[in-house]
Amino acid sequence: MEFKLTDSDPLKIKCDVLVLGRFENEGLRGVIKQLNDTALGNVLNRTFEQEKFSGEIGKSVILNSLGRINADRILIAGLGKKSKLNSDTLRRVAIQTAKKTNAFSNSIVFCLEFGEKRGFAAAIIEGMILGKYEFNKYKTNNKNLNGIEKVELQFDKLEKKLFRNELEFSKTMAESTNFTRDLVNEPPLFITPTKLAEIAIDISQDKNLECEVFDRDEMIKRGMGGILAVSSGSEEPPKFIHLKYTPRKKPRKSIAIVGKGITFDSGGLCIKSADNMHTMKMDMSGAACILGVMKAVPNLNPPLEVHGLISATENMPGGKAFKPDDIIRALNGKTIEVVNTDAEGRIVLADALSFATQLKVDEIVDLATLTGACMVGLGGYTAGIMGNNEALIKKLLNASKLAGEKLWQLPMDDELRKEIDSDVADVKNVGSRWGGAITAAMFLEKFVGDTPWAHIDIAGPAFIEKGGDWYPKGGTGFGVRTIIRYLLD
Question: Whole-model pTM?
């Protein structure tokens, strides 16, 4: 998709769709008023009344210009209340525009008459790339329509240098998110632990990153009992992936970002029902997020040493599968009583988090599709965040707001800790059904020591079966843009 600035008269630009914005409950002004009063003969006013459109965010109207201006169609997007206008508003407007017009448009012009603030152009560019996304690789009738290819933006007093910087940044953010979406949407027949490792190696070669992959023998040598146990029921060999980015100058700090990489989760011997097993290809969304972030990091040059860690395996009910009542020893030496083999993600993360502490990083952030309990509490569009360091959690919450991704902090209530006490090991992998997202985080906390750490449970927003106004169907790439913002903070 090509993006450029324009200062031409929007009513004279030849394009498929001219996009204008209307603030909520605001009268017709500027280009919209000019269109209504002259070219369209009061059609906009009548259309707004008929469709009861007053500029609410998330709503829009589209109409054919009937040749009265050079644009074939006009889309009026709701901007919500003027006092609340921000980058996320414009990102949503652009996503909605792309979703509504990609099937019949090649060229789009945005004329938004409210001046430029830093990040506004980036939000529109990002939103257009995200909104155009579709995963139709395996459809035999896929016509590979090009859709939107050219986007022009008209802003008051936007400097070309700032536009170029925002263009580069937003394309990196959006393309890394779409890369992650592709990984999540691929079938488990294709995305195996071995394939994830191959992708990590490819990224490291293209982006001048370091990459190390541990096979089963290396895991045995190091004592990675968690990933070894979970992988024991599968014929697919497990992989532990370590990507490392080192900045050109001395790093200010070192950070580990850790992803759960269960490439398919049957539940193991505590097998899921058929309905609950469907979509379990998405249980590697945390790993996909790490790969998307590490793909972007060299282009953004944060002054940090960044380690991307992934525990990748299937969870299958084979003859050698780990069992309820087994006791597993993780990399840091702590023992885990297995209560439920379908709570396997936290077990493989135990090794990855322990490995991160061995690297002596300054901060650890993990992302995992960890619990249905988090979805019950927060719904399908919001991730839960917990941890042992409020300053780190606050940084991630701020980053999520800039990224337009929803995070909500859950409390680490001490009263719940006894739920994962074990009579026969250091910790058990499941507590009662109450506070399940929180006790899962408390389990992970056992493996980070004193290192500042935050856990993001992305079980809800990582994969949305029905899609939505701002998300595609399937993998959403949730977390990529939040983590990148956090690294750049």
Answer: 0.96
